[in-house]
Amino acid sequence: MFKFFQKTSVIAEFEIIKVFRDPTEIFTRSVQPALWLLVFGQVFARMRITGNVNYLDFMAPGILAQSALFVSIFYGIAIIWERDLGLTHKFLATPTPRAALVLGKALSAGVRCIPLAVIVYILAVLLGVHIEWSPFDLAGVLLMVLLGSIVFSTFSLIIACLVKTRERFMGVGQLMTMPLFFASNAIYPINLMPGWLQAISRVNPLSYMIDALRDMMTGLPCQFGLPLDFTVIVISAVMLLAIGAVLYKRVIT
Predict the structure, then answer these.
(1) Is the pTM of this model over 0.70?
(2) In this structure, is residue 9 part of a structural domain?
(3) Which of 22-26, 93-97, 241-245 has the highest mean pLDDT?
(4) 214 and 220 in contact (C-beta within 8 Å)?
């Protein structure tokens, strides 16, 4: 078990080094959440669709989750690039378990999202969003961002293993990202949705990620409860990691 996590950390470190070599990616990724909070959030705050709740308080955790989703869901394209460069063959030729390869890459996607979380927090403070600053809440937010990133980056890896080409992957990735985002509780409460969309939202892992972030980041009450939120995300991560470990070799076939 120790060797498994050691090999996982080596793969994660290898991926994280890429971020430090090109930190501009962090700033370009931060443009989208900034626009959502500064433009979309300011407009919808006037509509009071969340009753007496400050809409920016409601929306900020959703934008944090959206940022993690958008970074993670297109992470699979790196797998295709690695295949084209011959790196995937080298990874598979090592004694490293495939599960460790997949988990290491998923963890690196989570680390990539942490600077975005910091940027979203800074924007939220500047916009007057109520923030919970207790160490427990901050640690919980980081943990949920990491777990959520693992879920969606592994899902992305699975798509990459199935479609195998960059062009198809970009099309499928865009096709999946927006439904995941809009069929969640990121920018409007579930009770405002039509019945069929509520049903989809309740099986969407992103809804549970946002629900937990909303409680720990801004103190708004959970709809599902923190224990259920973390349980759904952890189970989703484990299932997707297992599938990804099985399919990882298919990216080169």
Answers:
(1) yes
(2) no
(3) 241-245
(4) yes
